Amino acid sequence: MAFVAVKVFQASDFMMGTAGVSESSAIRWHAMADRALAGDPLDRQDALAILKSTDDELLDLLSAAFRVRLAHFGRKVHLYYLKNAKSGLCPEDCGYCSQSKVSDAEIPKYVWLNEEKLLAGARQAAALKSRTYCIVASGRGPSEREVEHVSRVVEKIKAETDLHICCCLGLLTPEQATRLKAAGVDRINHNLNTSRRYYEQICTTHTFQDRLDTLRTVRNAGMELCSGLIVGMGEVLEDIVEVAMQLRELEVESIPVNFLHAIDGTPLQHHEELNPRDCLRVLCLLRLTNPATELRIAGGREINLRSMQAMGLYAANSLFVSDYLTTKGQPAEEDFKMVADLGFEIIVGDHLPQAESCSTNGCSTSECGSH
């Protein structure tokens, strides 16, 4: 399998003109925010312009994205907690992943955690103010026995806590999705990761269409969709735009935005860290193209956004707290302080449907654009 070693976000890609920002720049981005709030979808040209905007325009762009975030989510922040239920041992060849068969990364490798360890993870999620507990397992897809194991655990978690449950288990059959729904799983995560055009550059053991098919299977079973992307794998700006539009078409409930953490031992280990300002542009793009969708800053935020992490929450309304699958995250206490310093509020157990939530918050249809 060939991996294209191209550095994403060349400076020339993001420069649209000479230095200096005029009043027209602010008007341009806020006009896009007006359209997003009115339910008028941005097109690909608009989306690409966001990614190509200059550093001088960045604060105006963030301000526009924040208007949309504020209308749909106020100053709320939802936290997610991950549990790696099965680590390594994966037969797939995803080039970014430390758990894949093509990775030599030194990571823990183990089969499924038992019930007690997964229940302990749920209790830890609740202790860390998480709204959602994510059970993640490596592999192409689960066996019937594994689906039963997850289902039994989820039933016990639901009986003990008020956590929202999201599972990431790989490719699913309709029967498996139905069983998970019956057990109380609220949402399935299955990321698109990149565009259809670029997908075979990062994985050859399954296809982009396989991922779309699983998302549609999940939707047909009555569960919510969590699907996002990884930025920084050698794609071009048009690929990022394509994913944003595809996620809008799928009407996913949650979009995790990962910024590549190039792990030693993976095929993408030599990719460089991203420019944090470019990461902010990506978050603004996702907010303005998917205005009413939960937007989460996910893996790689600490090493790519760095000192600008807090600014990401002007577009996004969600974070992972604590550690990721095989890499360490920022201490939870630092995340709590960051949210508080912004004047934002961590919300636990806020699972209202969008229409009811909007009514509770006092927004009208014309303001919100989500109905």
Short characterization:
With 371 residues, the protein is an alpha/beta fold.
Helix content: 40-55%
Main beta sheet: 10 strands, parallel
- According to CATH, the homologous superfamily is Aldolase class I
Shape: globular
Gross CATH architecture: Alpha-Beta Barrel
What sequence of helices (H) and strands (E) makes up the elements? HHHHEHEHEHEHEEHEHEHHEHEHH
Number of strands: 10
Mean pLDDT, to the nearest integer, reads 88
Low-pLDDT residue intervals, each spanning 5 or more residues:
1-21, 351-371
- Number of helices, where a helix is a run of at least 4 consecutive DSSP H or I residues: 15
**CATH hierarchy class name:** Alpha Beta
Question: In whole angstroms, how far apart are the ends?
Answer: 44 Å
Structural class designation: alpha/beta
Beta-strand content estimate: 5-15%
Description of the molecule:
Strands 1, 2, 3, 4, 5, 6, 7, 8, 9 and 10 form a 10-stranded parallel beta sheet that branches. Helix 3 crosses helix 9 and helix 5 (115-127) crosses helix 6 (144-160). This protein has one domain (66-347): Aldolase class I (TIM Barrel), CATH 3.20.20.70. The chain is α/β, with parallel strands linked by helices and 371 residues long. The chain has helices at residues 11-14, 23-38, 44-51, 58-73, 115-127, 144-160, 174-183, 208-220, 237-250, 276-289, 301-304, 309-312, 332-341, 354-361, 365-368, and strands spanning 76-86, 132-137, 164-168, 187-189, 224-226, 229-231, 254-259, 294-297, 318-320, 345-346. The protein starts with 10 loop residues before the first helix and ends with a helix.
